[in-house]
Amino acid sequence: MTEILDIALLSFMIVLAIAVSRMQNLFMAAMMTGIFSFLSAIVFTLLDAVDVAFTEAAVGAGVSTVLLLGTLSLTTREEKIVKKNNALALLVVLITGSALIYGTLDMPNYGDPNAPVHQHVADRYIEKSGEEMGIPNIVTSVLASYRGYDTLGEVTVIFTAGIGVILLLGHIWRKEDEQ
Amino acid sequence: MKHESIPRVVSKWFIPPILLFALYVQFHGDFGPGGGFQAGVIFAAAVVLYTLIFGLQAAKQIVKPRIIETLVALGVLLYAGTGLVSLFLGYNFLDYTALDPADPPHGQHLGIFLVELGVGITVAAVMIAIFFAFAGRRRLR
Fold first, then answer.
1. How many CB atoms lie within 10 A of CB A142?
2. Which of A66, A71, A141, A147 is most worth mutating to test chain B (most B CB atoms within 10 A of its CB)?
3. Which chain B residue is nearest to residue A147, measuring alpha carbons?
4. Structural domains in chain A plus CATH codes
5. Can you tell me the ipTM of this complex?
6. Inter-chain touch B112–A140, beta carbons under 8 Å
7. Contacts of B130 (CB under 8 A, 6+ apart)
8. Residue A116, SS3?
9. pTM to 2 decimals?
10. Measured between alpha carbons, how far is A48 from B126 in angstroms, rounded to an integer?
11. Which residue among A92, A127, B97, B102 is least crowded, i.e. fewest CB within 10 A of its CB?
12. For A145, which residue in chain B has the nearest alpha carbon?
């Protein structure tokens, strides 16, 4: 049953990706990327990664779509049509794509107990995090405590992005605010 | 969209539950899926919805840009500050056992709570700041 669902979702995603790349109307393309994010959120849920699915639905489908639409309202809704074929670009895309697919051949199968991720510290997190942290959500324990440094780095990245946008575009919103 | 009554009425019904859900995701992240990142984005989504319906000026009356700018930095400070507290108490940086050495799981729980709150504050503030910055620009050309 899950296999049918997986195949259906993944083929929807492929169709959507092709549709987005061929679409001239950028408004529709932005909405399509939102749907794409929702589909990948469902795939993450099927993989039992609810925290990741949650983030994907909130960030990928929600905020990114709003920001894309905000950008569109500042620029234009129609893509400029490029007539000439760019052979070099096609070549680069094909090489990158095949390199990525070649890379997946080395990946362990889903649920493989011998996968490197299950050989390292995962067992310890699953067995000990409950008594060490006193909270049942292992993802939160790993994110906030065992890997606290990494999360601090992530927050700093978001902080830097916010500062960058405020520096580049922010003087406008401050000025209007003070009027 | 100020004069369209259906979006106005629907958003008035929706924004409080969205804010409440954001707080639930923030403070229930230890037990269910979610945490600071998701909560921050959901909280910002409520503000974005308000801005889309009632306009940027009205939104800035409630969510002051100056406060948002402060919150952007405050979240990171809360996170790093929690780490520094444990450092000064003689433990490793971000080792929350320091917050309650007699009962390590309780200390960990408190540390995770503070750190996730910092994440939530920064993420929400940055999302709102980016959206305001985009929405505040006039159309080019």
1. 18
2. A66
3. B94
4. 1-81 (1.20.120.1200)
5. 0.87
6. yes
7. A67, A161, A162, A165
8. helix
9. 0.85
10. 29
11. B102
12. B112
